[in-house]
Fold:
Amino acid sequence: MNNKIRNLSSIRESMYREEILDLYKNPLNKGILKNPTHKFRKLNPLCGDEIEIQLIIDNNKVKDVKFSGVGCAISIASASLLTESIKKKDVKDIKNLNNSDMINLLGIDINPARLKCALISLETLKEAIKNEKQIKRKKK
Structure:
């Protein structure tokens, strides 16, 4: 790789890192939904990240989404980016999201030690989508 391409790659990586820090300090969609149709909370006991995702799904589309929790910059930024990216999406499209999609959304290289931090929101989202029946049972 020549120096010019390496420098452009370094600049892009730096911009994404700044965006991640900004999303950590000012996350999108952080909060609590009133009467979610789906929700799930996941904890990564190794690092202490804890994310809850709440959704309102109507006609198999995400009508609204929020997340709450605590974690490192990568886990909070990934929850922010993910929740923003799924608004108004079909549930079937969300079910097809994979780890590579999440890494691409973050836009930076993630080392193996931080991979769980980057993926906790995706894992939580997929469990939340499966979790509709338990919420309905609790309401009855």
